[in-house]
Each structure stands twice: as C-alpha cells, then as structure tokens.
Amino acid sequence: MMLLPTHHFRDIERKPEYLQPEKCVPPPHPGPVGTMWFIRDGCGIACAIVTWFLVLYAEFVVLFVMLIPSRDYVYSIINGIVFNLLAFLALASHCRAMLTDPGAVPKGNATKEFIESLQLKPGQVVYKCPKCCSIKPDRAHHCSVCKRCIRKMDHHCPWVNNCVGENNQKYFVLFTMYIALISLHALIMVGFHFLHCFEEDWTKCSSFSPPTTVILLILLCFEGLLFLIFTSVMFGTQVHSICTDETGIERLKRKHQPREHRGSWKSVKETFGGDFSLNWFNPFSGPCNPEPLSDRDWVRQAASLSETDNTETAEEQSEERKDEDSVEVTDE
C-alpha cells in the first residue's frame, strides 16, 4: 500500500509552530459577569429597529382601530390582554436573542503557551481559525458579521442582529413562535373586524375615516400574513435542528464530525432549560448552563487512513477546513 503524506502533516499539526501562534495576540481579560453582548452591525441594527416598528404598528392598529372603538367590551378586553401579552413576550425574546452571547469562543487563545498546555498526543489535532485567531472546538464556526467563532452556530440572523448559537437558540425559537402567534391573532381579528364593518356603518366601527381604516387593516393583514409564513418556517426548522441535534450549517454541509449523538429529548431539554415546564416559554429563563470548555474540547482526533479511503491528503483536509471556517448562513 502506498503511504500518503498524511502522517507527515499530522506530525506537524501536533507542533505549536504549525499554527503560527506568534501571530496571535493573547486573549483579553474577560469582562465582568453579565456584560451585555451587542453586535455593532449597521444592517442588523436597522433590521432590529424595523422588527420593533412592525410589532408596534400592529399594536397601534389592533388597539386604536379595532379594539378600543368596539362596543363589545368583553371581546376588546380579552383580545387586548392576549395580544399585548404575546407581543410583550415576542419583544422580550427578541431582546434576549439579540443581547445574549450566543456561545463565542475566546478570541486570540491560539497562543503557543495555550497550545503547548494541551499536550497533544499522536493522532490528535487542533484547528485554528485564521480570522479570529482562536482554537476552534468541535461544532464551532466563524461568523464574519460577529467576527467570532460561535459554538453550535446555526446561522446569523440580521433580524435579531446576532448569531443563533448554543446559548441563545431558545430565545430565537421563542421569538419566532410568539411573532407567529401574534400574526395569526391579528389576522383573525382583522377578519372579524371586516365582517363587523360590512354589516354595520363603516363610520361606527372605527374612530378613523373609512379609507384610512381600510388602508391600515390591509397593511396589517399583509404584514401578519408575511410574518406568519416566515416565522412559522423558521420555527419549524429550529425545532427540527434541536430535535436532530444538527445545526443549519451542519445540515447544509452534511459534515458528520465525530461527536456524541444525544437523544432528541435530551437535546430539547438542554436547549430549553430542563424538564418540560412553563419556563420553556419564558424568555427570562435561560437554557441549561453549558459546562466550561475543558482541554479535551479543544482537541480533535485525526481521521484514520481507512476513513479517508486512502485518497485524501492532509493538504486537502486543510483546504476543506479553510472553507469551513468561512461558512456563513443567513435567513435573509
């Protein structure tokens, strides 16, 4: 059997000099506990502002066009409480998804001292992200917007101006769920309000003029239908990713890297914070706290020659890994 140069390159990968640690600045000291995470991206900030504006527009139309002018006070009070509660939970989930660290890997930790402290053994390799100079643990991917490697990165969402990763996926799922629910609720109320106005005088069913009322309701109907479809699809894909323990990037690339395959229920409980309870739907309750990264989390086992079918060299693996570092998926 012809020997491939793979062994040679694996020997080199075990040496700190291979990763050029001298080009990495030592990681900064961690900030105080509870430091707010915020991405300074113009597009993401604009999308987040638009999200809030659309929710507040729906609030305005529901309250001042449909519910307050209604003579059925029981109908107005019940629907007003339900809609405002869902809207509050949606905006709270949006803030938590936007301001929570999604699982960023310490920046600049690919130093010679840190690599040597891992005490790599034969057959073990570490991968360095050339963009943020970090040692990449398994299932971490680099985000070009956040400029960090994110653990279990699913995608970067401009609507929450953040990556969806290990620590904030619960909040993103709740955000999509509550937006879908208020969109459906608004569409149902718009349908009933149109029927009510057709049966009675248009001047009595709203405090605005009939043309203004029609325009406001049509815009709300269009907004509700659009976001109901969009957030329902996103909610379904996120739940599927959690149940299969496979992120969006992993699903697209189909790179089954060696890792522990957990049951779907265990993955769900870790994402939403324990056994099923009302806290699953509470944006102020976090997911299960992940264990701090240990030395073994930074190290990966090199693929054997049998797994590569004697055709893939280390250069090809390196090029493939380089492509993986730059993968970015958005839900635009």
UniProtKB/TrEMBL annotation:
Annotated compartments: Membrane
Region entry Disordered, spans: 292-332
A Pfam family reported for this protein in Swiss-Prot or TrEMBL: DHHC
Residues of the Palmitoyltransferase DHHC domain: 128-254
Keyword Membrane on entry: yes
Reaction catalysed by this enzyme: L-cysteinyl-[protein] + hexadecanoyl-CoA = S-hexadecanoyl-L-cysteinyl-[protein] + CoA
Residue ranges, compositional bias (Acidic residues): 309-318
EC number: 2.3.1.225
Gene Ontology cellular component terms for the protein in this record: membrane
GO molecular function, one term: protein-cysteine S-palmitoyltransferase activity
Topology class, membrane: Multi-pass membrane protein
Transmembrane intervals: 45-67, 73-92, 171-194, 214-235
InterPro entries: Palmitoyltrfase_DHHC (IPR001594), PFA4/ZDH16/20/ERF2-like (IPR039859)
Predominant location category: membrane
Keywords assigned by UniProt, alphabetized: Acyltransferase, Membrane, Transferase, Transmembrane, Transmembrane helix
KW Lyase (keyword) present: no
Family affiliation: Belongs to the DHHC palmitoyltransferase family.
Domain remark text: The DHHC domain is required for palmitoyltransferase activity.
Protein name: Palmitoyltransferase
Gene that this sequence comes from: LOC111144065
